[in-house]
């Protein structure tokens, strides 16, 4: 029997399983955001679970995107040295899922993860909150590899092209009309 290699698993599962995870996540989010009577805290906790579900494809540590430093790690205790890092923060995903329930699928497509070293995760945490997605990796100086294609280095611009920040309506751009304006 051939020895299992992470690359084999990506090739076997590929985009079909990612689509299944995405479809399941979309259905769960739509049920959560459309349900009456769910307190905000519970809705956020449930959406947090959905974002983890979406990013742990196919596994918490055996994911497509990895930093070059994470690939070099050869220790036995992955959890102590490596971090499953959400490219778009869970807070950003959850806030946008609640604010833009009509854009659930578009937002959940941004629920991707990259395996990084613990020190790289700390650098990403220091990136300003206004910076999202793969731009955080550029700001933190992290090189990303595509494990589905033999640990090929990928430019941040290429990653942004694959996973851009979703085009969502701005909070301040929504036209607001007061009841007194409507009759004029």
Describe this entry's structure for a reader.
- With 184 residues, the protein is α+β, with helices and mostly antiparallel strands.
- 51% of the residues lie in helices and 10% in strands.
- It has helices at residues 6-34, 40-55, 68-72, 78-81, 90-99, 104-108, 118-125, 135-140, 156-162, 179-182, and strands at residues 65-67, 82-86, 113-117, 144-146, 152-154.
- Strands 2-3-1-4-5 form a five-stranded mixed beta sheet.
- Strand 4 (144-146) and strand 5 form a beta hairpin.
- The chain is globular, with a radius of gyration of 19 Å.
The outline comes out as: globular
Low-confidence stretches: 1-13, 173-184
What average pLDDT do the residues reach? Answer: 84
* Cα Rg: 19 Å
SSE ordering: HHEHHEHHEHHEEHH
What's the quick description here?
This protein has ten helices and five strands; from the N terminus they run ααβααβααβααββαα.
Topology at a glance:
Blueprint: H1 6-34, H2 40-55, E1 65-67, H3 68-72, H4 78-81, E2 82-86, H5 90-99, H6 104-108, E3 113-117, H7 118-125, H8 135-140, E4 144-146, E5 152-154, H9 156-162, H10 179-182
Parallel strand pairs: 1-3
Antiparallel strand pairs: 1-4, 2-3, 4-5
Helix pairs in contact: 1-2, 2-5
């Amino acid at each position: 029997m051939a020895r299992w290699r992470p690359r084999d698993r990506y090739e076997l599962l590929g985009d079909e399983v990612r689509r299944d995870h995405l479809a399941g996540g979309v259905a769960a989010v739509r049920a959560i955001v459309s349900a009456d009577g769910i307190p905000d805290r519970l809705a956020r906790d449930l959406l947090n679970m959905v974002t983890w579900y979406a990013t742990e494809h196919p596994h918490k540590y055996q994911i497509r995107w990895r930093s070059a430093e994470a690939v070099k790690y050869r220790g036995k205790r992955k959890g102590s040295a490596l971090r499953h890092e959400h490219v778009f923060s869970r807070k950003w995903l959850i806030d946008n899922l609640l604010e833009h329930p009509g854009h659930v699928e578009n937002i959940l497509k941004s629920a991707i993860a990259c395996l990084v070293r613990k020190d790289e995760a700390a650098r990403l945490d220091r990136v300003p909150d206004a910076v999202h997605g793969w731009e955080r990796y550029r700001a933190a100086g992290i090189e990303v590899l595509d494990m589905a294609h033999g640990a090929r280095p990928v430019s941040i611009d290429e990653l942004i092209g694959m996973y851009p920040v979703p085009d969502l309506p701005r909070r301040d751009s929504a036209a607001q009309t007061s009841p007194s304006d409507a009759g004029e």
